[in-house]
């Protein structure tokens, strides 16, 4: 089963929350309380997202985090990449020389095609889309 980590799941929840009012600056405490996510987990996630360029941090009394780009320009694929690294349904899709059977594998290209379909789907869903009802997407 393909499954994202809890931190990746929480990161999409946090970013989708921020996408509702992308011009706002959000404190960790505000988001943690509003979303029911432990403050240390929210802080860890936001630091990772800041390093990856998806959010920006602001210091000071009214500091916090804000989206680095409009929600329509941040895909779910980018969020997953930021939290987990490159998407790959199998090791051989992520890089070379990770599988002993790689040279003679008859299904590697099929895994690549499948991985590409999943990636394109995730690239096509933005933070703005995550806040729309499922029937309301493009």
Automatic annotation (TrEMBL):
Protein name (database record): Iron-sulfur cluster regulator IscR
InterPro entries, per database record: ArsR-like_HTH (IPR011991), SUF_FeS_clus_asmbl_reg (IPR014290), TR_Rrf2-type_CS (IPR030489), Tscrpt_reg_Rrf2 (IPR000944), WH-like_DNA-bd_sf (IPR036388), WH_DNA-bd_sf (IPR036390)
In alphabetical order, the GO MF annotations are: DNA-binding transcription factor activity
Return the GO cellular component terms, semicolon-separated. Answer: cytosol
* Superkingdom of source: Bacteria
Against PANTHER family, the record matches this protein to: TRANSCRIPTIONAL REGULATOR, WINGED HELIX-TURN-HELIX TRANSCRIPTIONAL REGULATOR, RRF2 FAMILY
Parts forming coiled coils:
none
A matching Pfam family: Rrf2
Origin organism is Georgfuchsia toluolica
């Amino acid at each position: 089963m393909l499954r994202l980590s809890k931190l990746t799941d929480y990161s999409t929840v946090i970013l989708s929350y921020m996408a509702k009012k992308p011009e706002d600056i959000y404190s960790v405490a505000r988001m943690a309380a509003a979303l029911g996510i432990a403050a240390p987990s929210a802080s860890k996630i936001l630091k990772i997202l800041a390093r990856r360029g998806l959010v920006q941090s602001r210091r000071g009394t009214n500091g916090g985090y804000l989206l680095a780009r409009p929600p329509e320009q941040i895909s779910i694929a980018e969020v997953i990449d930021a939290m987990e690294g490159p998407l790959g349904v199998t090791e051989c899709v992520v890089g070379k020389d990770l599988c002993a059977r790689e040279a003679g594998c008859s299904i590697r290209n099929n895994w690549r095609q499948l991985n590409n379909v999943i990636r394109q789907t995730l690239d096509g869903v933005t933070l703005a889309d995550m806040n729309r009802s499922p029937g309301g997407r493009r």
